[in-house]
Amino acid sequence: MITVGLSLIARSISDIWMIQNATVVESCIITMNRPKFKKALLKFFAALPLISVVNNVLKWSLGELKLRFRTNLSNHLYNEYLK
Length: 83
Fold this sequence. Notes:
Elements: H1 2-31, H2 34-82
């Protein structure tokens, strides 16, 4: 549960950063500021691996949570059936 919460927080932070960075890239395109555009694009590409890790941790932790829930529910229902 803690992993899910932390990964959701990290995902929210990365989404906000991506929106801000995309805005900077777009403004550089509009103003034709080539050095700032290159810098913003480099930051974007540098952050992609970290964002990918955050997404995969979130995906894994949600899958793990689903699996644990199904296992516990199955065990509970089986124990109730055998009473």
